[in-house]
Amino acid sequence: MIIKSGVKIQLIAFALITVLGVGYTLVHYLGFGSGLFNTRYTAYVELADSGGAFSNSEVTYRGVRVGRVGPIRLTKNGVRIELKLDRGRHISRDTIAVVANRSAVGEQYIDLQPRTDKGPYLDSGPAYTIKDTRVPVQTSELLKNIDKLVTSVNPKDLGTIVDELNKAFAGSAADLQTILDSGGKLVKEASDHYDSTSQLLDNSKTVLATQRDKGAAIKNFARNLSVLTQEIRKDDPSIRSAISATGPTVIQVSKLIDDLGPTLPVLLSNLTATGQVIAQRIDGLRSLLILYPATLGGAFTVTPGDGTEHFGLVLNFDAPPPCTKGYEKARVRYPQVTSNPPANLNLGCTLPKSSNLDVRGSRNAPPPKPGPALPAGAMDAAGAPPGGAYGSSSGGSQAGGQSKQTDSKILPYQAASTNSVYMTGYDPVTGAYVGPDGKRYVVGATGGQQRLLGDASWKWLLLGPLTK
After folding, report:
1. Are 194 and 202 in contact (CB under 8 A)?
2. Helix 173-192 and helix 194-213: axis angle, to 10°?
3. Which residues have a Cβ under 8 Å from the Cβ of 293 and sit 6 or more positions away?
4. What is the secondary structure of 334-392 as a DSSP string?
């Protein structure tokens, strides 16, 4: 029989395809010749029980087949399973080996579940043994437990549960569908953000451990919260009444604040000046408050309340003697002089306070404390606070003097030092002054008297209201 050349070519091609197919199957699936071609490497899994795993079953990594199960050998503590893994798959050694089932009646396989994708890897160095393993529940144990569960349920009670579930979910199909859809979206989001979800689950162990350690404190807090809730329940009528009254009260307070809006800032500004004056003269006020009750109490010795007045005469001339030191330049004014000569304000007792003479005069009162310093950044480029009463002109009188004011020009006040800050002149009758910005201000309406007037600021507290 003569075979045509075309048929020969077809037979040869078919034979080559058969050889290649069988060879690929033997090498890729059955593992024949893997050592010759160095296409696989070896790892081991130690188990107390095989869990149904068998040789030549699949090995998967994150659901993808990466090798086959090799020989299974008995050991003193269980079994040792050899894994034939494909090269090119970098599997971390920090991995859990799980003997899993494809279905309730399906074959078992080994699934490698890594905790991280970082090295060292199974294909680096000598063959590595995975000791962190999981095996499925035995089918016989599973069926036994299911049988116990089923026999423990009373059919009558189960019927009642089914009837109640029917009543509970009747007409809620749309809501259940929404819950299921939302649950699917939640699972999808968790899957898309697997790393973050895994980290959250890992950190939750720390949170739960903390909750367990603080269990006593949490119970105590819950107990106290229960007591607080009971007290609130007892006072529920009063609390409701207070809440009901809060609304009108808030409305009234809001109206009050709106009504005080135009004047309250000015009042607070003026109180700032008053506080500055009082703070500087706190020592003098303390002395006054000590002497005033004694003086007032002594006045009532004349009228003790018995219907008569009690007067006495005590000759205490020169006890103590008056102070004459400092009055040498004083001009004697006789009673017949009825003119109004100017007072000499430069006279006063110059003796020390510890003298046994009658040391008098305001200069012996407790001195005022230093004024508050200006905050940093309050001075402008010219050395004056913005909108304040300081200027930089060089004219005016010397320290301690007061410049004169006309309708068209206000001269600035100049301190003795040429490097100090200057104060603008003001009208003591109206309290008006011109700031560095050229605008006109009123002392009594904008506050800051202590900063503007210095030691004479207390006078404006008395004269200011009279000039309005």
Report:
1. no
2. 100
3. none
4. -TT--S-PPP-TT----S-TT-SSB--SGGGSPPPPPPPPPPTT-S-TTSS-TTSSEE-
Q: In a 3-state reduction of DSSP, which class is residue 458? A: helix
CA–CA distance, 258 with 196 (Å, rounded to integer): 52
Amino acid at 374: L
Contact status, residue 400 vs residue 390, Cβ threshold 8 Å = no
Pairing state of beta strands 64-74 and 79-86?
antiparallel
> What's the DSSP call for residue 438?
S
The pLDDT, as a whole number, for residue 407 is 42
User: In terms of residues, how long is the chain?
Assistant: 468
Point out which residues pair with 216 in neighbouring strands: none
| Burial grade of 164 (CB within 10 A; 0-12, 13-18, 19 or more) | exposed
* Long-range contacts from 440-444, C-beta under 8 angstroms, 24+ separation: 441/387, 441/389, 444/270, 444/468
For 76, the enclosing helix (H) or strand (E) is: none
How crowded is residue 350: how many other Cβ atoms within 10 Å of its Cβ?
A: 14
Residue with tokens 């030549």: 56
Q: What is the pLDDT of residue 44?
A: 92
Instruction: Name the residue type at position 170.
Output: A
- Model-level pTM greater than 0.70? no
- pLDDT recorded at residue 89: 78
Nearest to 81 by CA among 69, 67, 97: 69
In the chain, which stretches have pLDDT less than 50?
A: 374-422, 445-446, 466-468
Report pLDDT for 151: 86
pLDDT for 224:
92
